[in-house]
Structures are given as C-alpha cells and as structure tokens.
Amino acid sequence: MKLSKEEIIDLLKQRGLEVNDLYPTQISVIVNKENLINHLVYLKSIGFDHLSFINAVDFIDEGEFELVYHVWSYTNKVHVLNKVRIDRNDPKIPTIVDLWEQAQFYEQEVHEFFGIVFEGNKDLSPLFLENWLDIPPLRKDFDTREFSIRLFDAKPNGGDR
Amino acid sequence: MDAPSYMLTKIAEKDDLAVYELFFGPNHPGMHGNFGYVLEMIGTEIVKVRPNAGQLHRGFEKLMEQKLWVQNIALVPRICVVDPDPNEVAYCTAIEKIMGIEIPDRAKFIRTITLEMSRLTSFLMGMGALGAALGLYTPMYIMTADRDLILDLFEWLTGGRIYHIFNIPGGVRNDLPEGWVDRLNKVLDHLEKRLIEYDKILFENPIVHKRLKGLGYVSKEDAVRFGLTGPNLRASGNPYDVRVDDPYAAYAYLDVKVIIQEGGDALTRAVQVRIEFEETIKLIRQALKLMPEGEVRLNLGNLAMLKVPKGEAYAKVESSKGEFGYYVVSDGGMKPYRVAVRGPSLPAGLLLAQKHLPKMKIDDVAAWMGSLAICPPDIDK
Amino acid sequence: MIEILRVFLFGFFAIFIGLFFMGIGRKIIARIQLRLGPPFYQAFLDVGKLFSRKSITHNFVMDLGMVMSLAGLVATMLFVPIAGHTAIKTSSNLIVIMYLMAIGYLGMAMAVAASGNPNATIGVSRALTMMLGYEVPFFTVMLGLIIINGTSSLELIANSQAGSILNWNMIKFPLGFIAAEIALQAMMGEKPFDAMIAPAEIASGPMVELSGKYLGLAFLTHAVSIFVETAIIVNLFMGGASNIFTFVLKQFEIYLITVIIEAVFPRFKIEQAVKFLWTVPMSIALLQLVLIVF
Asked: Within its chain, how far is the Cα of C273 from the centroid?
C-alpha cells in the first residue's frame, strides 16, 4: 500500500516527532537517542525496508555528534534522513544490527573515523586504518597539516634550503 | 624463521584437520583492485573470512572539507575508477538541491548521455573481468578495444579519457562539438554488431554456464534486506531502479525499461548485465532524438567564489554497480562542512562475503566477486 | 662420444622447437583476440631474460626438484622417435615413455611443495589430480593401438602406417584420435584443463614461488613437454615422417589445434575436469577399444 509523502509526514508528526520537508522525495526527522530503535522499527513496518547508509557529522561548536540513518522505501518512494544527536564527550548509542545486518559494517566505519561507540556491535575492530595511534581522523579537531609535519617530518614550503 | 620453511603454517585445528591461512590478497591476479580477504581454509574449502580493506583509503571525505566547492569536482570521480561520471552528477545534484536551482534542459540531456556512456564502459570492463576470472581472456581483450572507442569520444568532448570533470553546479561545462553525435551513432552501431560475437563466445559458452550456475545465490527478500542495489537487486526479481523511482537529470522525460530476472545466481547476474547493455544503447539513441536546444549552464558567477547556503541534501544516482549516494552538509561558506559518500559495493563486498564465502571452494572466489561487481575503491574511499 | 653428442643435439633441438612453437602459439592467440601479439622469437627472449636474474631458493629440495623435472622430460624425449631416429639406440617402448613422463610432474611437485606457499600446494595437488584424469583415457587408446599392432614399440607403430595417407591411424581409428586429442589438451595443461595454473584463483599455482632461473627452468620444461607430447601423437596417429621437416610440420598442426581450442574456452574446476575426462573421452576410447578387439 503506497503512502504519499504528505501522509508519511502526518503519521510521523502524530507520533510527536519534528519533521522537515526538504525536497520532493526527501524528508528529515529529528529523533532522540532513546527512541531511535522504536522509530526505526515503526518505519520498517510502514514500508521503509532499505537501509542506505549510516554516517556521522561532527558539530564541534555545539559539542555534539549528529548521526544520520538513511532509509528509503521502495513502495512509497520517499527517502528519510533520521538524525540523532549525541554528546561529543561521551559518544555512545545502541546498535541497530538486529534490524539490518549491513549496519554492522557502517557502524564499524563510523566508529573508526569518529570514535562513536555502538553498544551491542560485536566487532568494532579497525577496518581501514592500520596501527592508528591518533584521535579518530574525521573529527574536526584533527589537523591534517600538523599530522603530516609531525609524523613524516614534512617541511612546510620546502623548509629552509 | 621458527618452523621449517617447507611446512604450511597451521593456525588452528578443527576436527583433527589443520586450518591454514591464505591471503586472497591485495597482490593477486584474480582480485580487482587493492583489497583482500584473509581466508582460513581446510584443504581447498573456506572456513572463515576476514576483509583486509584500507589499502585504497585516500582520505577523500576529510580532503573534501578543505577544498572549495568547485575544486572537489576534480576529486570526486576518483572514488570509483570504472564508472566515474555518477560521482560528479551526484555531487553536483546535491549542491543544486541545496541551492534550489534547476539546470537547463539541454544540460540535463547531456548529463544523461554521458552517464549512459560511462555505464557502457563499465559494463564492458565488468563483463571482461568476469570472463577473465574464469580463464576466458578472448572477450576481455575485444571488450577493452571496444571500450577504447567510447573513451575516444569522451576525450573529444571533455578533454579527459577516464576522469572527465565535466559536470559543474548549474549544468555542464561546454556544449557538444560539431560531428560528435554522428561519431557516437557510428560507435553505437558498431557495438550492437559486436554483441552477437560476445554472445557466442561468452554468454553461450557451455563451460561458463557450468561454472556460474548456482554460484552465490541471493533470494528476492534477502537482496532487499542486505541492502544490495543495482543490477544485483534486479537479477533477483525486484523491480527497483533509481532512474525510475527517483528521477534525476533527464530520466523523467525518457522511457527507461527496468529489466527484471528471476534466478539470483551468478549466471543470471551475468545475463542481466548483457541485457542492460543492450537497453543502454537504445536509451542513448532515445536521448539523442529528444534532446532540445538551449544553453548548457546557468550563470552562477565565478565558480571559485561559489557560496552554497546553509542546508543539507542526499542525492543518489544509479551507477552500473548500484546506488551511489552523496550526503552534503553546507554551513553557508565556501567549503563543504561534510561530504559523506555511500558506495554501492559495501553490502556485497563485506556482508555477502560473510554469508557466501564459508563453505565455498577457493576456485569460485574470483568468479563470485566478478559477478557481484565488487569494486574496492568505493568501499575504501 | 658420438652418442653423447647425439643426446645433446636432440636435447637442444627439442628445446629450440618447443620455444619456437610457444612463440608462434602466442602470436596466433593474439590474432584471435584482435591484437598484434609479441614477435615469433618472444619465448627465447623470455628465457634469456629469466636466466639472467637472481633467484630466491628456499632449500635444497627445491633446486633438486626443478632439475629433476627438466631432466625427466629430456629423458623421455630420448626415447621418442623423431622421423625415425631416436637419440639412443632403443626399441622406444611406449609404456616406458609414459612412465618417464610422470617424473617431470613429480619433480615439479617436489620442488614447489618444498616452498611452503599454500597457493603452490593447491596448484600441485590439482596438477597431480589432473594427471589422474587424463592418463585413463589416454592409456585406453594406447591399449587399443598396442593390441592392433601387436607391439608396444612406438617406432614400429609409426612404421606400420607407411604407405599412403589412408594408412594413418588418424583415418583408420578416428574415435581413438578424438579421445587422444582431448586427453592431449589436459596433458599439455591448456584450457579448458589448465586448473593447475589458474591465475585468478590460486595466483599461478606452482609458478608463484619460482623466480629467476627456476622460472626459466619451468619454461624450458614446458617447451620440452610440448615437443614430446606432440611427437608421441604424431607417431601414434599420423605415421611418423620420413624427414625432420615433415615431422615438425605435423607436430605444428597438432599444436595449432590445441592453441585454437585454448583461446575460446574458460577453465573447468578440477572436479568437473576429472569427471569430464573420465566420462566423455573415456567412453569414446572404450568404444574404439571394443571396435578394435571385435
């Protein structure tokens, strides 16, 4: 049964969530950390069966990470950006591996690059970086220029020749 | 060296049989790109799989936060080597969504034609790689020669053969030169004639059927549940295609035929690529007929000083491997705040490996990878 | 003294013709694949380059094994009549020839298993399994020919086909020829039966651990094996020859068939290959055997 974008916005607003209508086939929903799993289960029940992507954005000025869960419905043809804010100094959130199995790898990637801990994910070992001793690299306070100069003895502007 | 060099290193024991470790690794003639699986094996049968990713990690997402909006268009095609145009289109579409602008119609059609030509080159390489994984090198060489004809057309239009850097926010860089359309029609005729030869040597080869039948079966529900997209999804019976579900560029004006097949195994996926190849040629011809006149880019001023207003957008494109997605967050400045890339090979390369590879023999790993179109650069980014 | 020189002469001739055939074969495959291909003398350049490199060895067993494989094949070649001449005076017994050919494979197996690379070990086990596969139909065909000729001497079998072209065993026993051709494809390690060297699956199998001079020795072994195996087929089915040139020409025809089949087929898995070899050529050979006996 196909739901239109307006009907989906109404259903979600009735559940007390803040919804933004962004583009003709895209809406965004702000979700709390505690309601995340219930919300995703509800979305799965109304036809959103494809988990596209999980990524994080670092808002360092507000002291928060924002996790975005992208789900798409093949029957309703609407893309939902589920945005969850968590505290930057203690980034922890429960995992959604039981709903979609590919989430284990997306969460592994986000953990490696941002340092967010997903409770319940059985394998958060490093996937891409080897012997990494610094802070997670995609955070905004990781300076790539200073990292190169320190690690590889790079001389900026060719050094003094 | 502690153990004598003529003994394999035994890492475990299971039911009195020794388990040893084999690197189906980054440096291997059967692997596409620098990616590896660390396999634990008993005899020639695989027991456990661990992905060995990260050799192609170039740090694109961090790099894109430090460069101007228009400088990133030179970085973005390098995320996928075989099919680079969907990256540019997705990135520019995301920027255009945030800015709220719509590009001229002629630019939409030119974008569509370059996207479909890039899909042709990727299919040619993919079919050739599948044959080479089985040991059939003849179609691989012939397809590489045919792919060169399309790359010559790209060089005439954009200046680059593989990475085009042709799309910009607001349209495309320049219009089609004189005589380009005639040459494109000649190349398409040549490819249609060649399809008969490809059929005879690759798709009707009895040994290819014997090798690929029943390999890597994905059922209809599993394909959606695991997040597969693109031809892999459609070869399992699901009628979903981003060009029809969520149209971008000029696809809303064209009649795109969605090819569905039941079967779900490697042979069905190979035939799926072949049928989509033929449909792509027909789609380019359709787009050439319907293309209107007009401008090809909006005047946005000096692109190096482009400022994108605050907002966010997710744009997705149907590449030859699946759904390529770009999530762009802008804070109103001259550089992006965050660009996150969704590559289509991650569910197949990492999740399906855990499901299919144990209990498979080592003979089939290369053919399995080739049939699912796993391309490592967009896992690592 | 003359005997030793004769042996050396035959050895170098076999290596030369084998490398020459390999170069021509690569050119033909390249033309089928719509490309220009390397020059005819490419195999000589390859062997020359490989012997000028440094090589890594693991232990003494690896050295011994490689030399043993080349020596085994050269020993086989000494017994095969080439246009009526053999390198040493012998009755060129067919069973002795087939027995000595196995030493080639076993030598390489020994050398490569001593290196400890799992890819190489898998490749060697596949090579030995393939040997099990192709020996069965080939021996059946040979048995038929031995029965009809009453002798197991290759020279006498070749001479019995003298006369006209209609006397050739290829025309008199066509089913046997077909079965032997399929078994020859597996004996030479060409597709569709080249599971031993499967680059995409096991990183070139036995050759993955060989470098420099060892790879050169492997090339030479392959060259001599081409010469020996085509020579056996020419003697069995195409009536030997009266002079060297006709003999080499007939060998080239057999090699040409092999190369053309190789260009258009992928490879079987090892279980599929053995199953195929034990059903299709085996039944043809059995049919031929029954026709001969009754």
From this structure: 18
Q: Find all residues with CB under 8 Å of A52, minimum gap 6, and list them.
A: A70, A71, A72, A79, B227, B316, B323, B325, B342
Nearest neighbour of B338 by CB, restricted to A50, A57, A70: A57
Q: What is the pLDDT of residues B65-93, one digit of tens each?
A: 999 999 999 999 999 888 899 999 999 99
Number of compact structural domains in chain C: 1
CB contact under 8 A, A57 and B245: no
- Cα three-residue angle A70-A71-A76, rounded to 5 degrees: 140
Closest CA to C270 of C112, C105, C121, C129: C129
List CB contacts (< 8 A) between B141 and chain C.
Answer: 33-35
CA dihedral C258, C261, C266, C272 (to 10 degrees): -70
Q: Which domains are seen in chain B, by residue range?
A: 10-52 (no CATH), 60-380 (1.10.645.10)
Enumerate the domain spans of chain A.
Answer: 5-158
pTM over 0.80: yes
B147 at the C interface (CB within 8 A)? no
Q: What is the C-alpha to C-alpha distance for residues A156 and A151, in angstroms, rounded to an integer?
A: 13
Residues of A with CB below 8 A from B66's CB?
A: 144
Tokens at B9, concatenated: 């290193």
Residue range B285-307, pLDDT digits in tens:
999 999 898 888 888 888 888 88
Predicted ipTM of the assembly: 0.91
C198/B138 CB distance under 8 A: no
From the candidates C58, C194, C201, which should be mutated to test the interface with B, based on the most B CB atoms within 10 A? C201
Task: Give the range of the structural domain holding residue C200, as residue numbers without chain letter.
Answer: 2-293
Instruction: Return d(Cα B146, Cα B143) in angstroms, integer.
Output: 5
3.40.50.720, 3.40.50.300, 3.30.460.80, 3.40.50.1820: CATH of A5-158: 3.30.460.80
> Chain A residues within 8 A (CB-CB) of chain B?
22-23, 25-26, 28, 49-53, 55, 57-58, 68, 70, 74, 77, 79, 81, 100-102, 104-106, 113, 127-130, 137-138, 142, 144
